Amino acid sequence: MAESDNDLLSLVANGDRAAFDRLVYRHRGPASAFAYRMLGNRSDADEILQECFARVWSNAPRWNPDGSAKSWIYRIVHNLCIDRLRARRPTVDIEGREFEDTKPNPEQQLARKRAETGIHDAVARLPERQRIAVSLFHLKDMTADEVANTMEISVDALESLLRRARAKLKEIVREQQPDAYARTAVGEH
Amino acid sequence: MTEMTITRFRELADAFGGNLERWPEQERDAALALLSKTPDLSPVLHASSELDALLDGFMNDAELHDTGFMRDPILEQGGGFDIRGLLNSLWPFGGLWQPAAGLAVASLAGFLVGVNIDDLSATEASTAYTDQLTIVERALGADALEIDQ
User: How many CB atoms lie within 10 A of CB B34?
Assistant: First the structure.
C-alpha cells in the first residue's frame, strides 16, 4: 500500500531523507503549478517551491500529526505566494497581466496561447481569494475539504468562493468564446 | 446523513463541479443517494464538468510540473549528524518508541533479576550456615545438645 502523506511527513520529522525525497517527488509538480498560476512566472514559482520544501524539511518536527500533511504543505505554498504578491509593487497587478509561456518554440507558443488564453485571462481576472480557491481546487487530487483546510477557511466559505468564481468564469469564457459556448452549453442547466 | 434536495444538489454542482468525489465529504453520500433516485440530475453534473475540464487542464499542465527544484541545498541546511535518520534506518518499522520500550523493559527485567540474585545469595548463605550448624550438632551429639539461640 502506498505511504500516506502523513506517514511520509512523520518520517521526515525524524530526519528521514529518503522520505523527504518521496514527499517532494509527489508534490513538487502540483505545488509548482499552483505557485506559477498564482504568481504568473516561472522564476518566482521556482523560488517559492524551493522555500516551501526548505520549510517542510526544517519545520516537519513541529507539524501536528493530527492534521493533514498535504494541507500543511500547500498552506506553506499558499502563504509564500500571498507574501510574494503583497511584496510586489502596487503598480504590478497580476490580474490581466500577460503570463509568460513555458515553451521555447514560437509556433507552439502561439498555438498554446490561442488554446489557453481564454481560461488564463478568465482566472487572472478573478479576485485573489477566488483565484486561490479555484487554483487549489483544480490541482490534481485535491478535495474540497483539503482546500478549505489549506486556506484555513470553512467548507461553507470555500463553497461561496468557488460558486462566485465559477459563475464569473463561465461569464468571461462565454464572452470570449461564444461559439464554444453555443456548441457545448457550458454550465447551462 | 444530511438531507439533500435538488436545489442543494444544483448549488453544490455550481460550486464544486461535476465530480462528486471532490465534493465536501459531509455532502457526498446524500448527493449520491439523490442522484441514484433522480437520473434527471446527471446533466447538471455534465454541464459543470465542462468548466472542470477547462480548469483541470489549466492547473495540471505537465509543463508547469517541470521545476528547477534542488534538494541538496535544503538537506545541507539541516547540517550535522543526522541521528534521527540513522535511527530510522536502523528501525524502519514505524515509531521509535517501540525499540525504546523494549530496551526499557529489558533493563527493568535485568534489574529485577539482579536484585533477586542478591536475595538468592543471601538465602544460600543462610542455608549453608544451618547445614554447618547441623554438622556441628551431630558431631557433638546433637540430640543432647541444646543450642542457646
Answer: 16
Q: Name which of A103, A138, A144 is nearest B58 (Cβ-Cβ).
A: A138
pLDDT at B86: 54
Q: Is the dihedral of CA A65, A69, A75, A76 positive or negative?
A: positive
Q: Which residues from B are below 8 Å from A57, CB to CB?
A: 74-75, 77-78
Shortest CB distance from A15 goes to which of B59, B66, B84? Answer: B84
Within 10 A of B62 (CB to CB), how many other CB atoms are there? 8
Res A53: pLDDT = 93
CA–CA dist A3, B69 (Å, integer)? 22
Concatenating the DSSP letter of every residue in B22-36 gives: GS-HHHHHHHHHHHH
DSSP assignment, residue B40? G
What is the model's pLDDT at position B123? 60
pTM reported for the whole predicted model? 0.66
Q: What is the pLDDT of residue B80?
A: 34
Task: Return d(Cα A132, Cα A174) in angstroms, integer.
Answer: 22
The x, y and z cell numbers of residue B26, run together, are 459531509
**Interchain proximity A173–B60, CB inside 8 Å:** no
With cut-offs at 50, 70 and 90, classify the pLDDT of residue B79.
very low
CA count, 13 A, side-chain hemisphere, B143: 0
Which residue would you say has higher pLDDT here, A14 or B3? A14
Q: Which helix (H) or strand (E) holds B125?
A: helix B97-139
Average confidence (pLDDT) over B111-132: 69
Please provide the average confidence, as pLDDT, over all residues in chain A. 82
* Residue with cell string 487554483: A135
- CA B18 to CA B24: how far, in whole Å? 13
Residue A92, pLDDT score: 42
Say if residue B61 is exposed, middle or buried (CB neighbours under 10 Å; 0-12, 13-18, 19+): middle
